[in-house]
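Please, structure for the following, as tokens.
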Amino acid sequence: MSFFKKYRFQIICSLFLIWAAVGVWPLSCYESDSMHIIAGCNNYIAGGGDLLPPNYSYEYNMQPLVTVLVVGLKYLFSFLSCEQIYCLLTAIAALFFAGGCFFFGNKVIGLNKEYMLLSLILIPETYACAYYPNSTTLAASLFIWGLLFLKETRWLLAGLLFCIAPLFRVDVVIVYPTIFALFIYQGYNWKKAMTISVIYALAVITFVCLGCWLMKANPIESLASYNSMNNNLVFTPEVKFAVFTFYTALGVLLLPLGVVNIVKTKHYKLLFLCLLPILLLHYMFRNTGCATKHYLYLLPFVAVIYSIGLRVILNLKSNFLKYGIYCGILFFLIFSIRIDFPDRPWRNEKKSEAHIGPFVLLAENRNSVYRPQFGIGAGQLIPTEDEFMLASGNLFYPFYIYSHKQRKESYRREAYELLKGKSYNLLLLSWSECSWFVNLLMEDGWIMRRNKHQHGDSFGKLIKDHRNIDCYFTLEIEKKDSAGLLRVLSRHRNDGTICIVAEVENINYLLEKAARQGKIKRLGERCYELN
């Protein structure tokens, strides 16, 4: 017992890292935007055109250094695929970011290390950001360590990290005013804090402009794109889900508890330091923050507030209330409720992504159309635009993601083996399908020649030696639109042997329905051939 008391924190940290690492594997990407970046890297290595900028990518102007780094590492570690390299990079960056957030709360703010660790564990994005390749985690890890080096007055090293981070993802600059807030928190007068902050701002602008010029990227276009999306409100309905999955239901308790305590103790500089980045980011992403990772830059500041909230709970005079809250938090982490949605039949099937992962059913109501289920394990799936998150039962989240990634990878590999050596063309029915299965072909040496001015459904052509795979792409099929699918299939019946490898679950649901009707032939779990 004395050994545990002596090394309690180290033991908890080790268990947390082992537990969180489960979701890192397999090294497979389940998010479509990152898949397009990986496809651009694969395409260049296969001989498909220039690197700067790549002929095939996603938002290269916003994150140019990602492509350069992944391709560079591919030449050093040829035994790894670009996808595996990007996955590993993100996982390592997530580890450094989580460590940086912990040290920020413990060393810079002076919070209890166990509370700080627990607050990070209670925010799923702490580890969820490690489970698929993304540029946000890379930029965030540099940003937080830049803040830590500022605390140590290592000005040059901090400035270098602040300069490099936007080349991984330019939107990290949204939270850069935190640099000024940190100076104020450390006791600098306003004039000195502003002077140093302006010097850093000028250095970052100069360095980023030079770096983007060398890599032939234009970050201004990305910033304009953010503004356009804020105005057209395309992603606005998804923002609430992303915000909820970042703060979780526990945020309703811990966030106000922490903020009120900071105000009551008159730590206004700390309040300024924590709330400034939160308010800035929520304003900038008010209509575009459609994925949980968009709020990742806020993790150190939200974790600080949560940690203070946990301290408030510990100091409650009522043991009944205190232990009641602790039991409620534990209940939230372990127990879950799942429900079906009648308007989304693909989510209600047993093999659906919404029903995988560890889950022990304790009770259910089969008489309701929503079929509510209560049990121990991974809770209700909340798919944001980029990530799969859970409403509750996050103690099982790494195991859920492991199951999800492993299963999707098996579908993709099965389709690859089924079509290997055959002569066929591809019909791509969703944005993600333009890169999901295609990446495996690129790893095998196929080059994508994309049509810059797409005519009709003609997306591009995959070329290897003297063989071609014509790729047709359409986004006209809505959810549950069986008639739309049949219309698209009819349009391509004379385009040779057409194969479809479905990445999106609702598209696969329609394809299975068409296969049962004899309109197409089902070759495998996600693989189909047009008769």
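Residues 448 and 462 are 5 Å apart (CA to CA). The first strand starts at residue 335 and ends at 338.
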